[in-house]
């Protein structure tokens, strides 16, 4: 039992690229002398190298007679894989230089749903056209989840929503969009027939809103607006995603304050209304920032940072 465990835990042998290159040459030429000429070496060392490779693998790659050399079934199966290995190895220096320049590699970006309505699809499409070797991994996540993922190194950067001036602390942030808040109103509500609305029209309406821990600065700004008008919000329902909030408004559960960009989510049963200017109580706005750990921007992320605001 002990011997079997030791044998099972033994690591596979490391085989130098030189041996794979020699195998491919012999497999393509099916002649040791021609393969040796192609590799700029003499035949005996090449014969020894192929014997070494077969011994390392524990199987025969070639059947040899005095007149001909044939690939075994194992050798024929291995040939395309060995070719691919050599091609990929040859491409590594170019890939390394491209990665150092931010023209290749992997970029993990998280985003809140509001960015996905307009900005993100446009940027991703154009960025991929300009930097096709950068693999973009997109993860939809709320702001609180993004902050945890950034701290654990699971994402490179994230698009976060917040009140103006309240970007997450401890991160490098670049503001990429500013939005006013508008009101999502059920289409069957009498409020839907009035445009614009005043804050007084809305103060006693049931409110659908995101939980505070998801977006604390904007949650507090909305509550502060109600408190300044002498009213405590009537909470009807909490929901995490803006699409879900709008769907709940469509179901008639209440009104909701949403970024202006959410208007592009045209859900039947919902209309969007602005507040009348000069009603005496300013309506909070919101900002979207691209955030990443300070001093930890990869070359690919630096390319995206420079690209996104265009």
pLDDT < 50 stretches: 1-8
SS content category: alpha/beta
The residue fraction in helices comes out at 40-55%
* CATH architecture designation of one domain: 3-Layer(aba) Sandwich
Instruction: Kindly provide the name of the CATH class of one domain.
Output: Alpha Beta
Tally of separate helices: 11
End-to-end C-alpha gap: 65 Å
The coarse silhouette is elongated
Explained architecture:
Among the domains are: 13-94, Arc Repressor Mutant, subunit A (Orthogonal Bundle); 176-287, D-Maltodextrin-Binding Protein, domain 2. Helices cover 41% and strands 22% of the residues. It has helices at residues 2-8, 17-29, 32-38, 43-57, 73-100, 119-130, 143-152, 199-202, 216-228, 242-250, 299-307, and strands at 62-64, 69-71, 105-111, 134-140, 157-162, 171-186, 206-209, 234-238, 256-259, 270-273, 285-293. The strands form three sheets. Strands 3, 4, 5, 6, 9, 10 and 11 form a seven-stranded mixed β-sheet that branches. A two-stranded antiparallel sheet has the order 1-2. Strands 7-8 form a two-stranded parallel sheet. Strand 1 (62-64) and strand 2 (69-71) form a beta hairpin. It is elongated. It starts with a helix and ends with a helix. The model is unreliable at 1-8 (pLDDT under 50).
């Amino acid at each position: 039992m002990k011997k079997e465990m030791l044998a099972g835990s033994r690591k596979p042998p490391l085989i130098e690229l030189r041996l794979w290159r020699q195998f491919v040459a012999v497999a393509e030429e099916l002649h040791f002398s021609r393969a040796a000429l192609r590799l700029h070496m003499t035949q005996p060392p090449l014969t020894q190298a192929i014997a070494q490779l077969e011994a390392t693998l524990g199987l025969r790659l070639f059947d040899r007679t005095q007149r001909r050399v044939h690939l075994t079934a194992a050798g024929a199966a291995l040939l395309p894989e060995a070719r691919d290995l050599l091609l990929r190895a040859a491409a590594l220096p170019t890939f390394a230089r491209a990665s150092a320049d931010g023209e290749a590699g992997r970029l993990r970006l998280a985003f809140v749903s509001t960015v996905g309505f307009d900005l993100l699809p446009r940027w991703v499409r154009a960025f991929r056209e300009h930097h096709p070797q950068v693999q973009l991994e997109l993860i939809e996540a709320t702001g609180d989840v993004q902050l945890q993922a950034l701290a654990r190194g699971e994402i490179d950067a994230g698009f976060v929503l917040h009140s103006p001036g309240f970007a997450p602390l401890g991160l490098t942030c670049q503001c990429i969009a500013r939005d006013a808040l508008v009101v999502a109103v059920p289409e069957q509500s009498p409020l839907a027939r009035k445009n614009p609305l005043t804050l007084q029209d809305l103060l006693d309406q049931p409110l659908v809103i995101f939980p505070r821990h998801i977006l604390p600065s904007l949650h507090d700004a909305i509550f502060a607006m109600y408190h300044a008008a002498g009213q405590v919000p009537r909470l009807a329902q909490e929901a995490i995603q803006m699409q879900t909030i709008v769907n709940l408004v469509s179901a008639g559960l209440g009104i909701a304050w949403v970024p202006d960009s959410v208007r592009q989510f045209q859900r039947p049963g919902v209309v969007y209304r602005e507040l009348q200017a000069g009603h005496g109580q300013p309506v909070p706005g919101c900002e979207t920032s691209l955030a990443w750990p300070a001093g930890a921007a990869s070359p690919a992320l630096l390319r995206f940072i420079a690209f996104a605001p265009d």
